[in-house]
Design brief:
Blueprint lengths: L32 E7 L9 E4 L5 E7 L8 E5 L4 E7 L7 E5 L5 E8 L4 E9 L13 E9 L4 E6 L5 E7 L4 H6 L3 E6 L5 H19 L1
Antiparallel strand pairs: 1-2, 1-12, 2-3, 3-4, 4-5, 5-6, 6-7, 7-8, 8-9, 9-10, 10-11, 11-12
Pfam family, one: LOR
InterPro entries: LOR, LOR_sf, Tubby-like_C
Family: Belongs to the LOR family.
């Protein structure tokens, strides 16, 4: 797999989100959080990631299911409790991935958009993390991820604004990772944003970019 190549030294301003945004308020941190997403060596499916915070603590895990014709991936919390799954939508004109609850309920749709000279995707979901939203009507949130193939980086913003939600970069690889084809990513996330959702979006964006290169 490969996401926009090497890490970037360029930093962005990450302001807190009030109310929080995401699928689960329990994963909305009050501070800037950096996730280190490391692809596991010898993963049979090729889509297994350990995902830790900057202190080295497990946050979530991503497990790809081998031989799944929809490329289904399951995300679990640090206690191995299932959170949601990610799968490809079949018969979609543009690359589309669905984040679903364990009972199959749609939580988020991630669509690849045509963009000259860059990789662009839109993630749409109802804000389940906001305590201000009623149970029957949650605000629709749309996030835009744009990756510059020359800068080898990606920025995630609220669609139609310059409000930055997170930044994705690839960490410098060691020789073992280069030989094994494994990748390590850093995802820096604004306060008040669901870190589990951002990890899932990173995997979605990575897969779409990787397919565009093949």
């Amino acid at each position: 797999m490969g996401l926009f190549g090497h890490s970037t030294s360029q930093s962005v301003l990450l302001e807190p989100f009030h109310p929080p945004i995401g699928l689960n308020a329990a994963f909305c941190m009050p501070h800037v959080e950096t996730l280190v997403m490391k692809e596991k060596m010898w993963s049979f499916s090729g889509d297994d990631f350990s995902i830790q915070n900057s202190a080295g603590q497990d946050v979530v895990r991503c497990h790809g299911q081998a031989f799944s014709w929809r490329d289904r991936k399951e995300f679990k919390d640090a206690r191995q409790m299932p959170l949601f799954t990610v799968r490809n939508k079949v018969l979609a004109f543009h690359k589309t991935q669905l984040i679903e609850a364990m009972d199959g309920t749609d939580l988020c749709t991630v669509k690849k958009k045509f963009s000259i000279g860059s990789s662009r995707m839109i993630a749409s979901f109802h804000n389940l993390a906001s305590a201000n939203a009623s149970s029957s009507s949650h605000d629709l949130i749309e996030l835009e991820c744009k990756g510059d193939w020359f800068d080898r980086s990606a920025i995630i913003t609220l669609l139609g604004t310059e409000r930055v939600v997170g930044q994705i970069s690839r960490k410098i690889l060691n020789m073992r990772e280069v030989i094994g084809g494994q990748q390590t990513y850093a995802v820096t996330i604004a306060p008040g944003v669901d870190v589990a959702l951002m990890a899932a979006l990173c995997v979605c964006f990575d897969e779409a970019f990787n397919e565009s290169q093949n």
